[in-house]
Amino acid sequence: MKINSIIRKTSFTIAITGLFCGISAAQDQLQSQSKSEATIELSYYKKADMSKTAVAVVKTKDKEGKFVFAKNTRVNFYVMHDKEQQLLKNTNTDYKGQALIVFQKDLPLDDSLYFTIVAKIENDNLYEDAQEQVHYKDVNLGINLNPQDTARLVTAKVTEIGKDGKGIPVKGAEVKFCVQRLFGIMPASDDNTVTTDEKGEASFAFPKNIPGDTAGVITVAARMEDNEQFGNVENKANASWGIALVKEKNPFPRALWEPYAPVPLILTVSILFGGVWCVYFFIFFQLRKIKKEGQITINNSTL
Amino acid sequence: MVNEKYNLKNEIETVREDCLKPTRRWGRSTRIWIGCLLIVISWGLYCYIHQLRAGLGVTAMRNYVSWGLYISTFVFFIGISHSGTLVSAILRITKQEWRRPITRSAELLTWVSLLFGGIMPIIDLGRPDRIANLVIFGRIQSPLMWDIISICTYFVGSSVFLFLPMIPDMALCRDRLSVCDTRFKKFRKWLYTKMAIGWKGTKSQWHRLEKSMTIMTIIIIPVAVSVHTVVSYIFAMTLRPGWNSTVFGPYFVAGALYSGSAGVILGMAAFRKLYHLEKYITPRHFDLMGRLVLALTLIYAYLNLNEYWIPAYKMATAEGHLLRDLFSGSYSTVFWTLQFGTVLLPIIILSIPKGRRPLMLAITCIIIVAGAWVKRYIIVVPTLLHPFMPIQEVPNDWSSYFPNYVEFSITAACLAGIFLVITLFSKLFPMMAVWEVEEGILIEHDKQAAIELRLKREAEEAKTNGEHSGTGTEPIVQPT
């Protein structure tokens, strides 16, 4: 009787637990079905080495409604080719929510010489489908300077590429003149933006007080940022217009990264720890003596 | 007289038997305990391999908090390692007779916590295979280099300090293990023989051993103090709020002694209960150790006040942000619980004689040891989360830190490693220095004999004086 009662109670408990687990699993499934909204910010970059890149930044809102980067989200990159979207690559976003594609070939152009890049989130487990696209024209941003020029005039020339492949000067494009530093690009002056003229040219007198490397070489950069027609375009050139950097012989005489430690420090550490280790060696010597004396005692007793 | 000698011999034999008994039997509970520890260690090892393969990114540590649970545990273990110095060396040097049954466990705790404490920074390295570079391309200007030198020096010193008093005991174990019918017994015989280094107990050997022990007792104290001071330099020589302090050296030493002596009491309580050593480790030992911990807690409390009160008085910008976070921000609950729960409460408990009884003292010491561990975490982590340059343009989770399962598993494995080494040690070697306890009995016996002799002589003198003065009951009148 008792065993029957135990079996009955156990089966009842298992059934109830199973029911709860089932309900909870179903709730989890329902929760997982409600996806969050994600937004894509798409940018296009043409760099000095002529490489073309598109960067998609994916953001979503957290529980408090604040925008946060969506990590590890798959983004599909397409280009429009004959009015149809052609998948080029899919890649996951990093911790900054960024996914990027470097275009290996020339981008297909439409009749009005525009190319279209599309970034999409499709069939994602966490986020609803989203997409963003940009249309830009291909453009050349030339940079012209004479390293010997005492006036230090730098000229940028903006030409869009026509149907016949020839360059057409672009008037009214804003070009910013900057200088390359170790961790990024710094505006060359407060008033570093110049608009191109009919020839597509923008000239800028480079300041004379910018520090360069040991030979005084600096990297001059001309940039178009978030241009409506061309996106982000940049070009760079080197000139010895900077103030040559004079290395100080010993700027931090007491720094830890000095090649040689100060003699008093070496002496202090050596005396302190050397003294302790001398004592240890004396103890080891005593232990050796103890061992030897033990062996002598054994030999004597054997004799 | 013959009967007295027989009793003394019997007493010494009982001591030997009581000390060696735990090494003879590996009971079922011991095997289960070792099995459990091995499971924890295996899981920790698996997590460490995962960390090695995937990098430190699998932990919760990021750019800002690059010293998390591992380094906190390292500082904690090094702190615990001070127990041997305090209980064994200082009590030995001051010739405190009551130290005899507890020195071995204190020395062992020192050695084993140093062993695992030294491993923690290696675990914290993303590329431990480059550890040799620290020595090959080491720069003596770096506090990290000082740390390596001092910890290695202390480890060698504490190994010698543990080994020296074991030599006569190893000889005893070697001589007593006469029947070697199993492989394990053969191994033990071999181990004891090697560790006894030919000890025969000759006068010359005793002389050398005592001389070595005296020297080691003196030298180990400054070495131990230097180790924890140098550990504090790693923090104090960095220009960071919370660490930029001149009191860090003594503060770390006081914290180490306070947690280390509490650790010794826990060890004493465990061995007393498990190996039935109630006859040797008596409530008096607990009472005296309790007083010691009380004094150390008071010193630690005073230095704690120094560490927080002085910067709090100034509230300099960066330091102020950190202190506000500790006093009333996200770490305030832990901070105040530590101050009141693990410093003030033990002071109150240990001030009362009842609080120094074995059980109560053991509970208090558990609180102290756990508190000391969390305190190291509070020293390391909040400072890293309050750099001078504000944390910006990084993912949200980089601006906070709580260890994840990988860190907890590896740390738990190290703790289990400590328990495993202690368990194996206690099953192979006597947990009390047998010859020292015997020596204590002989000294006690000599004292008793001397007292008895004096009383006897006084009685005889009184009797003789009585006979000379007539009846012998009349008071002797001193001539004025």
Strands, helices and their partners?
The complex is a heterodimer of chains A (303) and B (480).
Chain A: H1 2-33, E1 38-46, E2 52-61, E3 67-69, E4 74-81, E5 84-92, E6 98-103, E7 114-121, E8 130-137, E9 139-145, E10 153-161, E11 167-169, E12 174-181, E13 184-187, E14 193-195, E15 201-205, E16 218-227, E17 231-239, H2 263-302
Parallel strand pairs in A: 1-17
Antiparallel strand pairs in A: 1-2, 2-3, 2-6, 4-5, 4-7, 7-8, 9-10, 10-11, 10-15, 12-13, 12-14, 12-16, 16-17
Chain B: H1 2-24, H2 28-54, H3 69-80, H4 82-93, H5 103-123, H6 131-136, H7 143-163, H8 167-176, H9 183-195, H10 203-236, H11 248-274, H12 283-314, H13 317-327, H14 332-351, H15 358-384, H16 405-428, H17 434-468
Helix pairs in contact in B: 1-17, 2-16, 3-5, 3-11, 3-15, 4-5, 4-10, 4-11, 5-7, 5-11, 5-16, 7-10, 8-9, 10-11, 11-12, 11-15, 12-14, 13-14, 14-15
Which radius of gyration of chain A do the C-alpha atoms yield? 36 Å
- Helix content percent band of chain A: 10-25%
Number of strands of chain B: 0
Number of helices of chain A: 2
The secondary structure category of chain B is: mainly alpha
Determine Rg of chain B (CA atoms, Å): 27 Å
Residue-averaged pLDDT of chain B, rounded?
A: 89
Largest interface in this structure: A-B, 32 and 32 residues
**Beta-strand segment tally of chain A:** 17
Silhouette of chain B: globular
Strand content of chain B: under 5%
Low-confidence stretches of chain B: 471-480
Please provide the ordered H/E string of secondary-structure elements of chain B. Answer: HHHHHHHHHHHHHHHHH
From the helix content, strand content and strand pairing of chain A, which structural class follows?
alpha+beta
- Helical residue percent band of chain B: over 70%
Describe the oligomeric state of these chains in a short phrase: heterodimer
In percent, how much strand structure appears in the residues of chain A? 35-45%
Distance between the termini of chain A: 83 Å
